[in-house]
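The material for today's practical consists of a large collection of protein records. Getting from the letters to the tokens is the skill we practise here. To make this concrete, we reproduce a full record directly below:
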Amino acid sequence: MLFERIFARTVAPFAGLPGPKPLFPVGNLLDILFKAKRPWEVMAKYGERYGGMSVMWMFNQPSIILNDARLITEVLCTRTQDFYKDEPCGALIPVLTRSSPNINNGAEWTRTRTQSPMTQSWIGEWRRAQMPAVRSVLRSWAERMTSVTDREAVPLQNEVQRITFDCFSVATMGRELPDAAYHDFMSLATQGSKRMLTPRRPKPELNAKGQETRKRFLKVLRERHDTVAANPNPAGFDLLSMAMRQHTPLPPDELSAEMGNVFYGGCFSVPSTIVSALYLLTQHPEESKKLSAAVRQLDDDCDLESLIECKPLDYALREAMRLLPAVPMFGRRVLPTAATELGGCLLPPNTSIWIVNWLLQRSAPHWDRPLEFLPDRWGGGVAEANPLGSDYFFPEGRGPRICLGAEYSIFYMKLVLATLLRDWDIECGRGQSYDAGQDFFFGVRMPFGLRARIRRRM
């Protein structure tokens, strides 16, 4: 083959691995371009066809595709010292700033993760303390959406995205941020998303307009930090107030930026999951009725423990995350300084690795009737046998680098679903395919096209 002859030296280390036939000079790029917005589907197909470890080529650059739970465990859990996170660090450093553990490696990752408010022992009390304020914001939003959708259904993703930003603002900084801050946040996220999807390595800095937007957004966060610092509230329930009371070691600029990173970490994946769950419930009205009845058994202002322990709510959310994960793949690389063995193959330094949860979370025989929405499958010990971050259920990642806000995002999604489904009927995507308007934004599958109506239950 022409590709193998011309790139013989590069191809040689991967000669024993199966994979799609590469074409000169583009390799397997055409497969990805054909599914430009859904590369995880291409990689899942490779898993079905070539097994748990295969190789694909982007021009003459190899990428290892992992669909094998055992090998994924090695990369993400037991041999993390042999790999590092590259994607999307370079693209997002100028957006998130270096304060985020998500885009760091090595000692800096250890420092930022250890010092992050999200990893502190008191974080559970923060979740409990914010519940009344966040519920109030959600109920006001639902009442407004009842009027907005009275005449016609509206696209739900952007609406849930905005209310999540508002709820996160209240939860992290004690108040909703102005519209201008949301627009700046979305402008930065859009630039970050474009940088993540470019086939070339992005420039190390944003353009002049992007830098000015970042400056404005960080200024809003820092001003809120200084206001809270100057007027401490002993009863403040927000993350910023609690972090200050606990004497966080982060300096002011890093602490205020880390409040902003909560938005980047959850304002896309969380709304995607909520909309996906509401879509699946709409397609399965018997499950929707079952869940609505369960949350109506909760007190109007139920406590954290009652919310977390509501089994029908837990099972429905797990099933939505299993079937339609917001983040369907994760990237790693072999260390740039040394080759490493994986699956019987010696991978050269800096080899790209893509880890696909899309296939494993829909894999038979591990999951019975894997493509069906069956929340009750999680009963009878299945939830305990498949905890978050396990072999066949890792929508938030796995191992020490599992999403920093995983527990918070699950708590928040449960709070949203319980609050809404207790008093409102929601139709999402009725008569539509889930693929309607689906896009890939900021590393997240976004069901932009699904339209919804919200009605107050009589």
